[in-house]
Design goal:
alpha+beta, two-stranded parallel ribbon, 4 helices
Length: 180
């Protein structure tokens, strides 16, 4: 495989494989109905197991299902929380069985300002993340970039209009649990 060639023939250490975008992969049909989604799941399982055995992070986006689109149209609040607890993947709900970590992202514009909302879904193999840390919002700067906060003050917020986490001005997460 390509990853094996990079390691064996060129001496690289592969630490991550970012595939844009596995769900759009065209696989051969075998003539039976429903086989495309089964083939994608099987192929995803193969790549996941290969990367897991070699300690390689495998990262790929996946399109959401039409059920998720309908939910978004009908649910102005709580969308990320709803899909993080379901299997709203295009092609097959069973794709979720092959995934070790889910991070759901939604871009939002409110009052002319852009935000990136995120919610952590399933995460296999570690201790559970506290509920308060599962969801956050990152406000974009006016130029469209995310402000750096690694060695500075926190910029993630819990609610649009609230202060940054740990600032003393944040909107408490528990007061808006049903709104995101």
């Amino acid at each position: 495989t390509f990853l094996q060639e990079l390691e064996a023939d060129h001496g690289y250490e592969v630490v991550a494989c970012v595939f844009d975008y596995f769900g759009m992969l065209e696989l051969p049909e075998n003539g039976r109905a429903g086989t495309q989604s089964k083939e994608k799941r099987s192929s995803l399982r193969y790549v996941r197991n290969y990367c897991l055995a070699k300690n390689i992070a495998f990262i790929t986006p996946w399109q959401m299902s039409t059920d998720a689109d309908l939910l978004l149209r009908n649910c102005r609040t709580g969308f990320l929380k709803e899909i993080a607890n379901g299997a709203y993947y295009a092609d097959s709900k069973e794709i979720r069985h092959e995934i070790d970590l889910e991070i759901f992202i939604k871009f939002t514009t409110q009052s002319g300002r852009n935000y990136m909302e995120f919610h952590r879904g399933k995460h296999r193999g570690i201790t559970s993340t506290k509920e308060i840390d599962m969801y956050g919002i990152i406000p974009y700067r006016e130029n469209g970039t995310i402000p750096p906060d690694i060695n500075g003050p926190e910029t993630t917020i819990r609610k649009i209009g609230g202060g940054a986490i740990g600032s003393g001005e944040e909107t408490p997460f528990y007061k808006h649990d049903n709104e995101y």
